[in-house]
Design brief:
13 strands, six-stranded mixed β-sheet, three-stranded antiparallel β-sheet, 9 helices
Amino acid sequence: MNWLYPFSRTEFIFIFLFISVYTLYVWRTFRLARQLNTSAWGVVPKFFLRGSYLTLLIIALLGPSFGEAESELATTGHDTYLLVDISRSMDASDVVPTRLERVKYDIQQLCDTLPATRFGLVLASSESFVLSPLTADQDALKQLIREVHTSIVPTGGTDLCSAIELAYQKLLTDPSTRQNVRSIVLFSDGENFAPCERSALARLRTQNMPLITVGVGTETGASIRNGRDFIRDDSRQIVRSRLNSEFLKNLARDGRGQYIQADVNGRYINELAGVLRSLKGGAIDQQRIAVSTNKYYYFLLAALGLLLLDLIVTIRTFRL
């Protein structure tokens, strides 16, 4: 027999109190019986009865486990490519300190929340490239994401769709992902200057690779710093970058995923982690294991039965 909990000070206290109080009760009862010139042996059966159900209650409290039952244990691998928009609009400060810095911090929190997930990292701008292939070394991934900034690639229009296609091809051609749950997460403000082919998003659905989009920024938007000035258009007006949530929602819908709005406190990371955990896929490892089950209820029912018997059956303490 195995025990779920060790025999602790609490159980010793209960036993000590029971013996002490009952010893005092028996002593006073026999003392009174001598004064009445009678017998008080009727307390003995009750002592053994109450001691029995106290013992059973303590055994139930300790969680006795015996017998074996077979259980099937399945392990599922999760592979996710994180796509980070590094266009100049991600330098907007409507999310403190900037949109990109917020994303970098939140990705590190996501890695800590999902330590068993393999993550890859793709940077999206006018050109997209893989900064990190799928890896279980999340410390290395977090170090890489800290070094990301918008000046890594030349300025130009954002092409989020090519980044999605790049992540799709990497997941599709990597043989280590075939039995795993595969997904793509895009962090962006939704500003995109290249069309997305619906056929490309349809391939994500066919391969069961949901596209989850995270909107970073606000509808009111913010200007973008450029040295001591701000980025201006051809008319010398200050450019104001705004979150295009509709575009990201449409991407998530066509990619059979989900749109999540990033908040200033990063609480959305728990929602994102919950979505990734809920994705279903094939098990990569299945095994049957024998486990012992907690049978505390047998002892609890026996103790309750004796307690009920104690309440129903009366025994004369004194025989006059």
